[in-house]
Amino acid sequence: MRICVFCGSSAGNQPEYLDAAKQLGTALAKAGIDLVYGGAQVGLMGAVADAAIAAGGNVIGVIPRHLVERELAHTGLTELHEVSSMHERKAMMADLSDGFIALPGGVGTFEELFEVWTWGQLGHHQKPCALFNVSGYYDKLIAFLDHATTEGFMKQPYRDMLLVDAELDSLLSKVKHYEAPKVAKWVESKSER
Ligand code: AMP
After folding, report:
1. Triad 46, 51, 57: Cα angle to 5°
2. Which domain holds residue 16?
3. What local confidence, expressed as pLDDT, does residue 182 receive?
4. Which of 18, 65, 86, 88 to mutate to test the pocket of ligand 1 (most atoms within 8 A of CB)?
5. Which site in 20, 120, 185, 193 is 20 to 30 Å from 30, CA atoms measured?
6. Which tens digits make up the pLDDT trace of 20-36?
7. Residues 180, 79, 31, 100: what is their CA dihedral angle, to the nearest 10 degrees?
8. Number of domains in the chain
């Protein structure tokens, strides 16, 4: 099994973020799950990869050529794929992986998570998408997603596709037991309007 982790190219200001990235990398390796990520050495990205490698895991990085220097491509990975664009990076990470977990991060992390989630909503894949809500970092985003649901811009089953947990074991268990909603429901619900 392979899990893709999206996370900050920065480390954030609180030590909890770095700790969580290390915990996740270690837990994946110990569970025999390969890590797919953006291939960088910087920020939480570097931390999750380093921890997985230190715990004996396989780590596959996917990095666009123009970011090899800026994000310092990791030189100690099991595999490093250099691709020609962000689009190729995201498509390759998605194809290689059986599920997606976002740690705290910035706009790059949000964009990557939201893209795979929307692909899931459209039925392009049936893979779990999860938010590791370390120290409540994503509380306001989660509140906004609930607001979007209350206001009629998201259906509850599709809001519920995004798995959320602040605790790692329970997040990994949700990822493992995830069942995608049936796409047909989405089509029906559209025609009900
Ligand atoms: P950030 O969360 O902004 O620190 O970025 C995390 C990762 O997302 C970095 O590897 C960025 O290169 C990447 N990233 C930034 N913008 C995008 C984008 N539009 N599409 C895909 N990846 C991106």
Report:
1. 110
2. 2-176
3. 78
4. 86
5. 120
6. 999 999 999 999 999 99
7. -20
8. 1
